[in-house]
Specification:
single chain; two-stranded antiparallel sheet; 2 helices; 31% helix
Length: 74
């Protein structure tokens, strides 16, 4: 019985020595929501997030399709 306990104990020690160290994972910090570039519409001047803008062939940006059709203005 003692021999079985010693063998089990030695097996556990070997397993603990050979097992990779468990390093706690570093939590990734969440990105700050709401931080993005805003651009003025070439027609009306209203500021809209850059990802929502519509651009014409000359690179001017507009807030909507109607203003893009009307072109740069006021």
């Amino acid at each position: 019985m003692l021999r079985l306990i010693l063998i089990a104990l030695m097996g556990w020690i070997v397993w603990r020595l050979l097992a990779p160290a468990k390093i706690p994972k570093v939590k990734k910090q969440p990105e700050m929501p709401g931080v993005e570039n805003v651009v003025a519409c070439a027609h009306c001047g209203i500021y809209v997030p850059e990802r929502e803008m519509l651009a014409d062939t000359d690179g001017r940006r507009y807030c909507c399709a109607e203003h893009k059709k009307l072109g740069a203005g006021t």
